[in-house]
Q: What sequence folds into this?
């Protein structure tokens, strides 16, 4: 697959300003004081995605990118103690930032706190030299007020559809949020974890390159199908 078409478009523009407040030495933005991420210094074309807890396997797997697309309980410790994970995550060529949930039944304050905590961990890892691909998470349009804050424009981003494909309302929110993300951030490449809904307009594919990687559940289902089970 030829990605040379992105060379001229690849540009990470810092959103830092001299008036941005700081905490833990980080630059912040928006009402929620969300850390600003630089994004990776170059495009990363993953050979595979590996869950962050399997960081040891990334050492001997060039092109492996670690992700946090697991339930909140499994990633909570890493999110709350990001510096303890710097050395482990450094075994991979890059890491996708945390993905603490933004669920429809969560109070708005919980969604905002989870978004902020996801970004704080990612920003601390960037501080220590890790290549971090920002993950974008939303549930519905109410989250647009903060879920895109601090993300680099015209950079590389990641999303997951795993928790958003069960009911029609979630699929609709997933598609609408993705379109909103494209308009606001204009990413040059999106790593998509899980299934891409058929409802995603072709215009989205024309605006950015989408690289898809199956989730663990999808991979298991495809393996069963391949063995002749129905």
A:
């Amino acid at each position: 697959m030829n990605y040379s078409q992105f060379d001229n478009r690849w540009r990470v523009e810092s959103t830092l300003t001299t008036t941005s407040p700081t905490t833990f030495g980080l630059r912040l933005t928006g009402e929620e004081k969300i850390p600003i991420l630089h994004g990776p210094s170059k495009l990363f074309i993953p050979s595979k995605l590996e869950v962050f807890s399997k960081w040891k396997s990334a050492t001997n797997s060039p092109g492996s990118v670690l992700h946090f697309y697991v339930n909140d309980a499994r990633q909570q410790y890493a999110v709350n103690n990001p510096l303890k994970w710097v050395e482990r995550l450094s075994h991979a060529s890059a890491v996708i930032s945390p993905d603490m949930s933004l669920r429809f039944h969560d109070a708005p304050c919980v969604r905002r706190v989870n978004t902020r905590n996801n970004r704080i961990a990612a920003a601390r890892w960037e501080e220590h030299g890790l290549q971090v691909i920002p993950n974008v998470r939303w549930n519905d349009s109410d989250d647009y007020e903060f879920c895109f804050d601090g993300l680099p424009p015209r950079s590389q981003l990641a999303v997951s559809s795993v928790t958003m494909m069960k009911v029609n309302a979630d699929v609709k929110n997933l598609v609408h949020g993705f379109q909103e993300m494209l308009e606001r951030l204009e990413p040059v490449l999106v790593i998509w974890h899980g299934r891409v809904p058929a409802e995603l307009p072709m215009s989205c594919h024309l605006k950015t390159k989408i690289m898809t990687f199956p989730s663990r559940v999808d991979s298991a289902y495809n393996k069963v199908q391949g063995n002749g089970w129905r």
Observations:
- The first helix runs from residue 55 to 58.
- The radius of gyration is 17 Å.
- The chain has one domain: 35-226.
- Residues 4-22, 220-230 have pLDDT under 50 and may be disordered.
